[in-house]
């Protein structure tokens, strides 16, 4: 695996996509930046990260041979790797907020953005990971927290990256071995607000109550709504309010 370290960039996902396209990279590659000026989150959200305080990197991972309808298992593998690493670092009350944000209590400690690379079919994924490590104050993300805030301990971002990559490949290996049922069960067991009545917002602004029951094999959230009806939603169709 090749690691490209940058002092600064707009977004590691954006840089890595351009980098792999220009050089036709075929091997797994990491782009790691100590500063991002325009880090991206889900739904186009801005990712706040203070220079030299956090871990922001992206992984180019080839997944040729994985059917497109099984791509969400990469999301599960990524979430589980991060969850396990943070747990070992002493973070408590961890959960996965569907599809792949990691929470400590009710505050976000890690965000993930996964983008597909299509070359005559699904060729690779670019996985952007932002972990709040040593930052104490968040001005644009009031619900954010960090490893330092949760544990009182400083950590070297590079060491955490090595830890995450090791665990990521362990879980990706389960994907390549088609151990889908175990991955899905493990992921669902860690879902934030699972089996609890929660409020959701539709794009229209309408609010409704639902209970998270599971995720589909393609990554849609399955909610139990009125009269015990089960309904699937994708990321653009609803927002969990908490």
CATH level-1 class of the largest domain: Alpha Beta
Walk across the major sheet and give the strand order.
Answer: 1-2-3-7-6-5-4
CATH superfamily of the largest domain: Bira Bifunctional Protein, Domain 2
How many strands in all? 12
N-to-C order of helices and strands: EHEEHEEEEHHHEEEEE
Q: In percent, how helical is the residue content?
A: 25-40%
Shape, per Cα inertia axes: globular
- Sketch the major β-sheet: 7 strands, mixed
**First-to-last CA distance:** 39 Å
CATH topology of the largest domain: BirA Bifunctional Protein, domain 2
Tell me the domain tally. 2
Structural class: alpha+beta
Global mean pLDDT:
92
Q: Estimate the strand proportion.
A: 25-35%
CATH architecture of the largest domain: 2-Layer Sandwich
Model description:
- The chain is an alpha+beta fold and 242 residues long.
- The protein has two domains: 2-189, 2-Layer Sandwich (BirA Bifunctional Protein, domain 2); 197-241, Roll (SH3 type barrels).
- The protein contains five helices and twelve strands.
- The protein has helices at residues 12-23, 72-88, 147-151, 157-176, 180-189, and strands spanning 2-6, 29-33, 55-62, 94-97, 101-104, 107-118, 122-131, 197-201, 207-215, 221-224, 230-233, 239-241.
- It has a seven-stranded mixed sheet with strand order 1-2-3-7-6-5-4, with helices on both faces. A five-stranded antiparallel sheet has the order 11-10-9-8-12, with no helix packed on it.
- A hairpin with a 3-residue loop joins strand 4 (94-97) and strand 5 (101-104).
- Helix 2 (72-88) packs across helix 4 and helix 2 (72-88) crosses helix 5.
- The longest helix is centred in the C-terminal third of the chain and has 20 residues, at 157-176.
- The chain is globular and about 55 Å long.
- The mean pLDDT is 92.
